[in-house]
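I'd like us to work through together how a protein chain folds, taking it slowly. To get us started, please write out a protein record for me. Go ahead whenever you are ready, and we will take it from there:
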Amino acid sequence: MTDQYLNECGNWLLQRKLTIAFAESATAGRLTAEFALLPDAGKFLKGGFVCYDASLKETVLNVPGKLVEAYTPESEAVTEAITRGLVPLIPADIHVGVTGLTAPGGSESPEKPVGTMFVYGMKTGNRIFSERMVFAGSPEAIILQTISYTAKMIIDALLPDKPA
């Protein structure tokens, strides 16, 4: 994947000597993989954890089952929880979690259609962004759009005039 925001994000991380880790559900490791393909990725990418199944969110990332039941595995609340659950597993400066609906068969509804994606980012334990987006296209197209938009959110959060 060649993407302006992804390449720029890698450069921003390198310039600031920041490290990053991902907790991925709907993107199933693709976000981590795309960051791994950037130049000098070993200097900023710590790793990622794929928690596609809700049980992994609960057992490995310590997301309360009641939270998953109340809000669904693909929700803003659960995305924040998987991001926070990643912190003790993979030490990094920035932690990003992603959940969402890339294809039918999850918790889609008229209010949350297929293409709805949730991204939550933290820098040293503090929220730097939280976003709900709706993308169109095939599952792969939705994932690629999510990756690009996530990279843009990281860049925007790291801009000097924005609070970290």
Observations:
- The CA atoms of residues 58 and 65 lie 6 Å apart.
- The chain has six helices and five strands.
